[in-house]
Write a structure and sequence with these properties.
- By secondary structure, the protein is α/β, with parallel strands linked by helices.
- The chain folds into two domains: 143 residues, Nucleotidyltransferase, domain 5 (2-Layer Sandwich), CATH 3.30.420; 181 residues, Nucleotidyltransferase, domain 5.
- 38% of the residues lie in helices and 19% in strands.
- It is built from 15 helices and 13 strands.
- The strands form two sheets. An eight-stranded mixed beta sheet has the order 5-4-3-2-1-6-8-7, sandwiched between helices. Strands 11-10-9-12-13 form a five-stranded mixed beta sheet, with helices on both faces.
- Strand 10 and strand 11 form a beta hairpin.
- The longest helix has 25 residues.
Length: 404
């Protein structure tokens, strides 16, 4: 009798959510289901699941006052759905690997200890991610767990791109530009190679992952050469609730004028700024686009986002010495043709020429046949990237990923 195919659970812990997906890893990866627990810490927390069957597609309330309760509810459902011994491994997205971790790796006590030392790097994500790995270890003590680091794609940035212009002694403490969204970028580069061939993937590429968190990466010869996020995910372009780059003098100004503490400043730039801060109504790009004709604040939030992304594209084209391919991904990048059009408007000097109907239809290629730069929309898949990494780390014998 043929042994059952390995089953890999991927886990992506956010500040107020836990996303997951379940894959069967045979000759290729097959997604069985996916979903998440949303609104952790709020009374209206909910478990959403979408699978291949109606039984595995539902939405129901759960009690999740914190991440510990949320992961408990998730594990209860997973165990009921698959059985205690059905899982082969768990892959975790870990936001920050610091200076040490540059590739997916088996989670060990030594790694967890190292991640605890890194918690000051990302106090908003790492504590919850460590909690998730510990919870799975307690429930399934023999189950291998693999950490997939979101910073790994940018680990070998050129020195000039990773240095921060502050006193040199902080570099020895690991303070540098790390960049994030690495799992998404790694997937997009693989997919670009599959769709357009190795020559395109080895060319001068700008990747724009535009979602509730947003960043861009400049890639040449398949390697990250610069990225908009920095030491933390708060840097770069404005996002749903994050500010992006700010004048550091604001810290001192607000401390003097409003007695704002470092903790309050961190809360402001991560949770009260970006689209939400400018619009004063919503962090959702779809809602802002609907309101912009009659709400100047919504219109200004959208305009600022598009303007800043456009500036980063220009800057990265300069860093790359030109541009061959521009890729849009993420919720906004994949589903907001109006935003893509506004970002690309005025970039004809770089060779970017959008085809209006293709863009409106969210087609895979949205540039005209005569455009010198190929402009693509690619649906990113971080979960599949995690599952593939687990296959490779544990040598499960599957190819790691298949065509979406």
């Amino acid at each position: 009798m043929k042994a059952p195919d390995p089953r890999i659970l991927t886990v992506n812990g956010g500040s107020s959510s836990i996303k997951f997906a379940l894959f069967e890893a045979g000759d290729s990866l097959q997604r069985i289901l996916g979903g998440g627990i949303e609104r952790i810490g709020r009374p209206e927390a909910v478990l959403r699941v979408k699978g291949v069957s109606q039984e595995d597609t539902f939405s129901r309330p759960v009690t999740a006052p914190d991440h510990a309760a949320a992961v408990g509810a998730l594990m209860d459902w997973i165990e009921k759905r698959t059985g205690h011994d059905a899982l082969t491994a768990v892959g975790h997205r870990v936001v920050d690997g610091g200076p040490k971790y540059s590739a997916p790796a088996l989670i060990t006590k030594e790694m967890v200890d190292e991640l605890r030392h890194l918690m000051p790097f990302d106090p908003d994500h790492l504590p919850e991610e460590i909690l998730l790995t510990a919870a799975f270890h307690r429930r399934f003590p023999g189950l291998p767990q693999v950490a997939c680091f979101d910073t790994a794609f940018h680990h070998d940035l050129p020195r000039v791109a990773r240095l921060l212009p502050i006193p040199r002694r902080y570099e020895a403490q690991g303070v540098r530009r790390y960049g994030f969204h690495g799992l998404s970028y790694a997937f997009l580069m693989e997919e670009l190679g599959r769709l357009d061939g190795a020559k395109a993937a080895q060319g001068r590429v700008i990747l724009a992952h535009l979602g509730s968190g947003a960043s861009l990466a400049a890639v040449c010869d398949g390697r990250s050469v610069d990225t908009s996020m920095g030491f933390t995910p708060a840097a770069g372009v404005p996002m749903s609730t994050r500010s992006g780059d700010l004048d550091p003098g604001l810290v001192w100004y607000l401390a003097r004028t409003e007695k704002m503490s470092p903790k309050q400043f961190n809360e402001m730039v991560n949770s009260q700024s970006g689209l939400l801060g400018i619009s004063e109504t919503s962090s959702d790009m779809r809602e802002l686009l609907d309101r912009e004709t009659h709400d100047v604040r919504a219109a200004e939030a959208v305009a600022l986002f598009c303007y800043q992304v456009k500036k980063w594209i220009g800057a990265f084209a300069a860093a790359l010495g030109g541009l061959d391919t521009l890729v849009f991904a993420g919720g906004i990048g994949e589903q907001a043709p109006t935003v893509r059009a506004r970002i690309c408007d005025g970039l004809g000097f770089l060779g970017i020429d959008l085809e209006e109907k293709r863009n409106a239809a969210n087609e895979g290629v949205i540039s005209t046949p005569v455009s010198r730069v190929a402009v693509r929309v690619i649906r990113t898949d971080e979960e599949r990237m995690i599952a593939g990494a687990v296959c490779r780390v544990l040598d499960l014998g599957c190819e790691g990923r298949n065509e979406p």
